[in-house]
Write a structure and sequence with these properties.
The structure is a homodimer of 155-residue chains. Chain A folds into two domains: 90 residues, Winged helix-like DNA-binding domain superfamily/Winged helix DNA-binding domain (Arc Repressor Mutant, subunit A); 64 residues, 2-Layer Sandwich (Dna Ligase, domain 1), CATH 3.30.1490.190. In chain A, helix 1 packs across helix 2. Helix content of chain A is 39%, strand content 20%. The first copy, chain A, has five helices and five strands; from the N terminus they run H-H-H-H-E-E-E-E-H-E. By secondary structure, chain A is α+β, with helices and mostly antiparallel strands. The longest helix of chain A is centred in the N-terminal third of the chain and has 17 residues. The structure holds a DNA duplex (25 and 25 nucleotides).
Chain lengths: 155, 155
DNA sequence: CTTTCTGCAAACTCTTTGCAGTCGC
DNA sequence: GCGACTGCAAAGAGTTTGCAGAAAG
């Protein structure tokens, strides 16, 4: 994301804050800018680090606000750690997580949505939501196969 | 799960511990028994509570061991909280979480596995794993629709 | 008898809360 | 000017670690 794109993304997030009745303050602006600088996911800690002008508590409070307004989403890593990522799209989506370069991409699929609803229904559930993370290697990272090993499917 | 089934499940878990080189100790037995008494998921805290004979640290250490041996699996709740559940099946599976009664069922589906691998591949990922939780109402819980409201699909 | 495991207590990390002052709108 | 927001500091969960003794195999 280049400087101009980040600027636009920041304004989109700020407008949404304002529209939902939250105030666009200096610390929030700072954090939004910092969030957007991450190419992929980040921890609450890494947002806080090197930002002496923003209190720790404010970071956590802002994280909640951003989550509520859909500016951020949680990503569950393979080891169960929960981290954050700027939501390209405020709507429902899933994550593709590269286990090598830590890139996270959003994606959505009507087909998958339907398949999940159907899977739930088959077990007697009326599905109201779900959470899906797919782990693998993105096409910029050499696979085990191409480096001599063998890629194993865990799923 | 009745007493006999729990006893069998406990033995299965203990055998697996032994086979993998872990010791079957008194505290671990206690915890296994307690885990099996939960009809659904539980937190690290609820495992610890009311078990004065087992130290807090031992609970956490055992949790890691059980996770490593496949006796337990993590379940991510809708709000991002991570809890544990006895794995009926040591193999890969997904979770159906009832948002009313907190029941968690395991399920697996070759079809879904293939669909997820395919979805990843479509985005250039070589899929090595995934994590899926489906939230909804199980067939023992009245739906909003049947109690006058309307069930909304979030996914 | 060796090695792993345990309880305890202390240390640590991560997150939340209370409060008086500040700042957006 | 009002009310939401902020930084600070302290409190509060939740989890990990060091260690000497206990127990499994």
């Amino acid at each position: 994301m280049d400087t101009i794109a980040r600027e636009q993304a920041a304004q989109r997030i700020e407008r949404r804050l304002a529209r939902l009745g939250y105030r666009v303050t200096q610390p929030r602006r700072r954090l939004i800018e910092k969030m957007l600088a991450f190419e992929t996911y980040f921890s609450s800690d890494s947002l806080s680090v090197g930002e002496p002008s923003v209190g720790r508590a404010t970071v956590f409070r802002s994280l909640h606000v951003f989550l509520r307004t859909g500016a951020l989403c949680q990503v569950v890593l393979e080891d169960g750690t929960i981290v954050y990522r700027v939501a390209d799209d405020g709507a429902h989506h899933h994550h593709l997580v590269c286990i090598d370069c830590d890139l996270v991409e959003e994606f959505s699929s009507e087909f998958l949505e339907a398949a999940l609803a159907h899977a739930g229904a088959a077990h007697g559930y009326q599905v109201t939501g779900h959470r899906l993370e797919i782990y693998g290697r993105c096409d910029h990272c050499p696979t085990e196969a191409s480096s001599g090993g063998r890629a194993g499917a865990r799923g």
